[in-house]
Amino acid sequence: MAKKSKNLSKMPSKSAGKTKKRNYTDILFEVKDQVAWITINRPRVMNAFREQSLDEMIDAVKSTREDPSIACIVFTGAGDKAFSAGGDFFAMKRLTFTNGAMWNDRMQGLAMAIRGVPIPVIAMVHGWCMGGGHELALWCDLVIASEDAMLGQTGAKVGACPTVGATQYLPRIIGERLAREMIFCARRFSGKEAEQIGLINKCVKKKDLLKETLNWCETIKGHSSQTLRMTKKSLNSESDNLYSSWQHGMELLAHVWGSPLIRSCRSF
Q1: Which of 2, 14, 145, 217 sits most deeply, having the most CB atoms within 10 A of its CB?
Q2: Which ranges constitute the DSSP H helices of the chain?
Q3: Phi-psi region of 258 (alpha: psi -120 to 50; beta: other; left: phi over 0)
Q4: Domain 14-209+219-254 CATH assignment equals 3.60.20.10
Q5: Annotated domain spans of the chain
């Protein structure tokens, strides 16, 4: 069982409600008071994720379907430096055109699990939120960030195509021109800037991040669960063609794995 690191997202005390836990290696998973908390628990690498991390996140998201009392899911990162720096380059440098397909399937699998789960999914972002970590936030229904958050796409710098969310979602969320600037120029946005351009829903002081996220959870819990489930399906309907775009994006990305384009540098 993974040791719990010092974590920005300290959960409510056990007295706040019943607690359910599942044991993983790369993530922490806990259900408290009708909220499922998924914490990427790799702070020594800025919560960069590897194949196992993706498998565990997929399993955790899908497990919430087993408990109809869960009202929402919150994703966050362990420690106080990062939500997630994206894909772990030590893992990604081993990828080739052949085995890269398995990495791509995992990324798409997590994206579709978040999109397909019938309850709202919230990204609670602090610190670095870059590359694949930022795409993880894009997959979520709502994003709240602290003022120290830094959001961006780094694929142009490190030789990885952001085709599992960024190329599809960013033009819809912040507009075509700014999306191209963010991807082509690897432009970063602070939490405040991200709120101003509509990249996230809300930016708060770091000390208030957990409190405000819990307020959102309480609001969601107070609404009709059946209505929210049906509404999410309806909201997804207009952009259901994202699946085919992700499939095409994965084919493009497969040509990058194992090529000289992958540089030995961090994802931000």
Answers
A1: 145
A2: 51-63, 89-92, 100-116, 132-139, 155-158, 166-174, 176-184, 191-196, 209-221, 225-237, 242-254
A3: left
A4: no
A5: 14-209+219-254
